[in-house]
């Protein structure tokens, strides 16, 4: 087994030459689930991503985790049409069976996808010295390779952002004050606002399908002015070194579940995303740049008392093509108590989990490794919880 170097960092953009889009990105910053510390940066592709010998390639990747090739492509990805009259029931069914589905006919303009992706690539293609001005994370901004502070690494660089304008860092206030026009019309803001509206609709349909009362029991947490929702842009550079790894795949982002209520992912047309089925089989998800992929998060698993299960997933690096993904993580306010919803509990049914606040869960997750079963710490010992 090989392991790789990886890192993540954030910093304040306070240079007159920095692109306005990037200034916006780092001042919409998210409080990341896994805070990141400084690590030696990605160098430009032409400097280090292309190597000239097998031994050099292996040395360059020697700390990044690899895995055996997975040739199985999941042809049974559940698909939900948001305009289907049966959408509420289909969403429940797919979340119960897989914790994951593809959403089509979602209403988010394709223009928002392409514009944000183009702007993101402009940033990720900047010289490393320019990107470093946005790091290390504190905890907002740019990071790469290192994922959290507990040794997890991957072949990835990323931007971590906050989607709640009510929650800003001190460094953000300067940009809000000096360049307010950026926030009225931008690739980032247009995309996030459209995805938020769509996500509210999805979780309300889910509530309808589950017969949760009130109908906005989930969506109100995401709409709350103190919502701890997040947005992340991931970039997985091409990795020609893969040919020197004896057929093994390089991990871009290691296996994990998302802690929030729901995750909404869109990527370009490059493969790499994999999910773990209930039988522990890893399968590749065919890319679809026009659709969204929806994940059940840990918080939703608890709120449904294990009826819906968060899905384990990971991303593998490609040898010749870069992958860009954008993920909205719908999270509750930090003070929100997470527990099974009363309207979902049958008479006499016991909760499988101890009650906790979202802040407590985030704090616990920060102390864990990426692949740990984090909910295990919050399961009732005698309740027969759903398990990993």
Automatic annotation (TrEMBL):
Keywords: Dioxygenase, Iron, Membrane, Metal-binding, Oxidoreductase, Transmembrane, Transmembrane helix. Pfam families: 2OG-FeII_Oxy, DIOX_N. Residues 226-332 form the Fe2OG dioxygenase domain. The keyword Ubl conjugation does not apply. Its EC number is 1.14.11.13. The chain crosses the membrane at residues 20-39. Pathway: Hormone biosynthesis; Plant hormone biosynthesis; gibberellin biosynthesis. It catalyses: gibberellin A1 + 2-oxoglutarate + O2 = gibberellin A8 + succinate + CO2. GO terms for molecular function: gibberellin 2-beta-dioxygenase activity; metal ion binding. Catalyzes the 2-beta-hydroxylation of several biologically active gibberellins, leading to the homeostatic regulation of their endogenous level. Catabolism of gibberellins (GAs) plays a central role in plant development. Converts GA9/GA20 to GA51/GA29 and GA4/GA1 to GA34/GA8. Belongs to the iron/ascorbate-dependent oxidoreductase family. GA2OX subfamily. This is gibberellin 2beta-dioxygenase. It comes from Gossypium darwinii (Darwin's cotton).
